[in-house]
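Why DUF2277 domain-containing protein? Reviewers of the renewal asked for a concrete example.
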Amino acid sequence: MCRSIKTLRPPVLAEEATEEEIRAAALQYVRKVSGFRAPAAHNQEVFERAVDAVTQATAELLDGLEVRGAGARRAG
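Here is what the prediction returned.
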């Protein structure tokens, strides 16, 4: 997995992830999976659609998670 993608939920983050943080994680994921840091012009549209889809899926995931013991410290 891409090491630059950080956990975007409490208690790792003190507050809710911002839209910018979610999109940055989605961009890193798509870059890793595609193998392209910046796609060629002929791949730009599909690359952006993938970032949008991953951003949306991530936001839905974070919105739906039930975090128990959010006050507990993360081990390790």
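The chain is about 50% helix and 0% strand. This is the kind of structural detail the renewal will allow us to pursue systematically.
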